[in-house]
Amino acid sequence: MTIAVAGATGLIGRYVVEVLAAPGAEPVVATYRSRPPFSAEGVRWIQCDFNDRAQASRAFAGCEAVVLCAGRVSTSAVLRDEPVESVLDNLRIVTNAMEAAARGEARRVVLVSSCTGYPPATELLDEEQYETGNPPGHWFGVGWMHRYLEKQLEWYVRTLGWLESAIVLRPALVYGPHDDFDPRTGHFLPSLVRRVVERANPIRLAGDGTQTRNLIHARDLAGAVKAALQREAGFQAFNVATEDEVSVRSILQALLEADGFRDAVVELEGQNLGPSMLRVSGRRFMEATGWRPATSLQQGLEELLVWYRANRRVE
Predict the structure, then answer these.
(1) How far is it, in rounded angstroms, from Cα 217 to Cα 178?
(2) In this structure, what CATH number is given to the domain that contains residue 85?
(3) Which domain holds residue 68?
(4) Most exposed of 16, 21, 98, 176 (fewest Cβ within 10 Å)?
């Protein structure tokens, strides 16, 4: 079985390629648009812009399975500045990639979706609650976009019969080396890492620092993708999360301690665009596949600090 990975040079796609391209594994076809390919044994690289349907079809030729990681990451900063454009870009990219897989030779698809489609809640959410209310605040558009894309994939399997199997994975907040550290487009964690390593003083936090997030290392998510490729025929959707909910303030404190920045001054800005919490249960996926996250948050944060210090661009 030849497996295609769409968006293979992004944070998630990169780790998926590395996990799937292990010695003795199935052949892997990896797509990229502008970010250059990296060295990976047994991988055939194809340049592809999924805005173009013809390019999308050519990219998956001869592939029996497709992992969809392509698209733009819609962070709070991106949604604030481009609330509609980022959603439309993702719809176009993922729809074209999904249709190319379904109309081609692929019989199995794994779609990396998002937890932004969940409604606001204080309780632990499972998969059935994904469509019980509107996504919160500025996540409204991007959350409904992910819901639509999931339904489109379900349609291809259950109604049209174009695919034998499709697994949707809704990961918690993904992080790791090769993340986006651009202050305009990156998530809060790489932004904190950048400010800690560069000794910004004061370090400002959006909100009051008590908002909580579930963090999962991209390497662990790639392991979940590999496990999902082994699932039986049909359509299923799963959350992929760790068992730990951590506050933004505690994450910053862990980074400061790990990097020895003990005299940092922390200032709270009092305004936060995201929800105060988003708690999702990853129990079902763990029970269905035996997958477990292998990277502790402390290990992941220390790895991220080391990687950024070694690879950052000094202006």
Answers:
(1) 11
(2) 3.40.50.720
(3) 3-311
(4) 21
Instruction: Decide: 9 and 49 in contact? Cβ < 8 Å.
Output: no
Distances (CA, A) of 171 to 114, 116, 238, 289: 6, 10, 8, 15
Nearest 5°: the CA angle 212, 116, 277 is: 20
Strands (E), the chain: 3-6, 28-32, 43-47, 65-68, 108-112, 165-171, 173-175, 203-205, 212-213, 215-217, 234-240, 246-247, 266-268
SS (H, E, C) 24-84: CCCCEEEEECCCCCCCCCCEEEEECCCCCHHHHHHHCCCCCEEEECCCCCCCHHHHHHCCC
Q: Quick: pLDDT tens for 14-61.
A: 999 999 998 778 899 999 999 999 999 889 999 999 999 999 999 999
| pTM score, whole prediction | 0.94
CB of 141 within 8 A of CB of 84? yes
